[in-house]
């Protein structure tokens, strides 16, 4: 019943629309974009945050005022350039203003204010005094892109500000890394209480960052702000929100509402160093690096091949990456980017890329992997002729290195050999004849003592066992 009723009203609207409705609702400018507040009583567009007095809007065409009777209802209109947009009005406490489907001037319409929807616009109409209903009224209406926009009008019985409360920044600023190469991160925060007129995002007070904002929820007017970070700027990031209040349509005065700001220091992770690449198989390589960063990092390894750069490996804390499936006879270049894992100690943007290392994958199969890995260790400097030279050459050139595991020829692995020379055991080599004699005697004595002790030990070894058994029993 109800749905058929509203369907009939809708049909009625469609039929009567060209004549009667154009008289009630103001025209929507068809050559503009976006959304706006329109006040027919003053025949003017209102800037958002304009302050108007309750005597500037009604639920009828107020013909006794300075504008002549034009048939347009002197409500406060919230308009969108999307002719099908549906808008909603909210009270200062963020509850929805009751909507009314009946005609303007119908006595059963809600009091003191009600909302009435038309295609592309919604009217805020007043029937009674606004005592107890003053404050910032918000209209949420989608623009031609379907994005909700919020327009604010301060409505008071006098033209003075009652509560000059500006927007507030939420305490949390979240960091979201979207892409490492090209760098795309975002810093997100919410602005509450009312949409900001101005939103400034700067680094070191000099560089301005671009941002986007979205009305997250109309009723409480939370504006979600996303600041795009596409450059590795280290420094002090500051977000400032503020509002301008337009005192009223006549005074042209602008009063700054109390603003809010938040700043945080953002760093850039240190780039990995000492990059090396070595062949570990006929079509596999190992890329290794070191990293001076103190906070935990993950690493992303990129490969450049045939002018194409792509991410080929992700490691968590490890500083090696095994890259498989390379093509024999082709050349590859690698670099690594460090990405900070721990944001509790502050936000670190991904590092610059490391130095590049290149390697050519030999076309012929190497005889053993260990020798070829030795050959490729300092592959950056390798010329094609050196790579193509047979692997048998290598052991004769550096036999000592080929003994070491292919992972890394660390200095600590080499040290034990020279270290043995200084060993205390071999230091008392220079013996005199007397000492030799003494030593022989001592040796005999030692043998005797050892034999004796051996006997004692053999006895004592059996004794405790008995004791133990006794204790157990
Ligand atoms: C805007 O509307 C006017 C009449 O209301 C019409 O003459 C004009 O062509 C329209 N312009 C566009 C861009 O639709
Ligand atoms: C829209 O049209 C009106 C009158 O038709 C004109 O005064 C106004 O400048 C136009 N606006 C834009 C943005 O073109
Ligand atoms: C006023 O609105 C009510 C509810 O929408 C409706 O039932 C009634 O017929 C309307 N009265 C007039 C005079 O339009
Ligand atoms: C919000 O304000 C309206 C109008 O003043 C009132 O009717 C409603 O009860 C209020 N809601 C809350 C949750 O305070
Ligand atoms: C912003 O508010 C929305 C909901 O109102 C919430 O889901 C989101 O997590 C908030 N974002 C931040 C950065 O606080
Ligand atoms: C914020 O930006 C606006 C213009 O976008 C500028 O007029 C205003 O001075 C800026 N405010 C601050 C605090 O930098
Ligand atoms: C726009 O806001 C209204 C509430 O005012 C909500 O119902 C609607 O889902 C929002 N639309 C979008 C696209 O966010
Ligand atoms: C910002 O200032 C800090 C400290 O002076 C400096 O280290 C940093 O490089 C600056 N950032 C930019 C992007 O200028
Ligand atoms: C790589 O790009 C450079 C310049 O962009 C071009 O001169 C070169 O021919 C390209 N090489 C390949 C293998 O596509
Ligand atoms: C981040 O680092 C801090 C201090 O170094 C440590 O207390 C915290 O547990 C770390 N958090 C994570 C998630 O690793």
TrEMBL record:
It comes from the Eukaryota. Residues 396-418 have a biased composition (Low complexity). The chain crosses the membrane at residues 435-459. SUPFAM superfamilies: Fibronectin type III. Gene3D superfamilies: Immunoglobulins. Residues 390-425 are annotated as: Disordered. CDD domains: FN3. This is Fibronectin type-III domain-containing protein. It comes from Amphimedon queenslandica. The lineage of its organism: Eukaryota, Metazoa, Porifera, Demospongiae, Heteroscleromorpha.
